[in-house]
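seq as requested:
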Amino acid sequence: MNNYKKRFPENFLWGGAVAANQCEGAFDVDGKGYSVIDILSFGDNSKKLKTMSSQDVENALQDKEGYFPRRDGIDFYHHYKEDIAMFADLGFKVFRFSIAWTRIFPNGDELQPNEKGLQFYEDVIDECLKYGIVPLITISHFEMPLNLVTEYGGWLNRKLITFYTRYCKVLFERFGHKVKYWLTFNELNLITLSGYMLGGILSDKVDNMIEAQYQAAHHQFVASSLATKIARETNDNILIGAMLGRDEYYPLTCKPEDVMQSIQDSRFELFFSDVQVRGYYPSYSKRYFEEHNIHIKKELGDDEIIRSYTVDFLSFSYYSTSVSAYDREGMETTDGNGVITVKNPHLKASKWGWQIDPIGLRIALNNLYDRYQIPLFVVENGIGMLEEIPDDKYIQDDGRIQYFREHIKQMGEAVKDGVELMGYTPWGCIDLVSSGTSEMEKRYGFIYVDKDNYGNGTLQRYPKKSYYWYKKVIASNGEKLD
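struct tokens:
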């Protein structure tokens, strides 16, 4: 008789995910300082995130860049009770959100935290717990204090390890008895795509950007491991996770060169989880570093710290898959989660070009679990859609329902395959400001927020059709998907 798992485990954590910089607003309220992301204006920020300079920062601080939607978000700061009540009605078991570093240490280098910031998050945590919702907190989700960039050079400076671990110690001591699940950094691997957003690196301050990105990542590896050490010393009930932005890479053909390219492309991401999960730099990184003139400066004891304090689980975002080709010249390409990829003719894509691949999620889960053999957590997955609210205030987002139905089916198949899966938090469970473009019209949520790209609207919240569908999914523990 087969004894493989036939359904999601009874303690499976169904919920949703947001980030402070995309939903909170109130960017200058109660002592909050500027974060790196507060100075990104409306529009496609993809190029700027790769080439952000000191002059760009200065222009933004003088408000020369236009409208800054993230500074207002959806005003979760003043609507959190209403929003969490809706999450509770949905049946959330878990709510993933981030703490804005700049609410706790506005400049990042203070010795004492901002009590008003701590109290806000204590109120949010308590509101979740009131409904039996487990908080899953991201400690740094593209929200490092801007002052640490302009005064210290971002994560290129080892002093940030001290500033970050001080911040973590405050969080664990204040909230560790209430919050079990923590993520140290969001999508740390994306530092290779945006040295500014994740590393606070300005393009006019470095000569070798690739080397700078990996040097900054090294300091974050050490900081993450030290945060794990602090957490375990503070409360042995705390579990620390890494967070990876994950694409699966398919070779374009069975030509050996394409297959090898897919392995190399995949390693470009998995290097980061390899270090955080396994506790050491993988052997394949040596060749890459040599060929790209990358020289990592380590201090005595860094490798031991990274080896001694690895993560307890691996979380990841999954939106799409990519295609690897040894020679891409002349091929049609499309956007993905931070990457440009060869277009897969077998897949449909969203309006923004992200290829929709539910089976790819099963593949990702199997590959990650085979590689690491630790619990996995899908903490971001979703689809951006254009939506206008009708007169009856009821959006029939059947396309979103279909997207989630197929992805949840494939997660269930992965569980049957033997993958140890902790939970699922779809991204943007409530409409929020887009990470890549700072727009509102790219909507992800089960809940519509009445606000447009330029800040106009009532901020009223309205459940979509997908809201009621996901509510049934959670109540049935993933069994009722129709």
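The longest helix spans residues 209-234.
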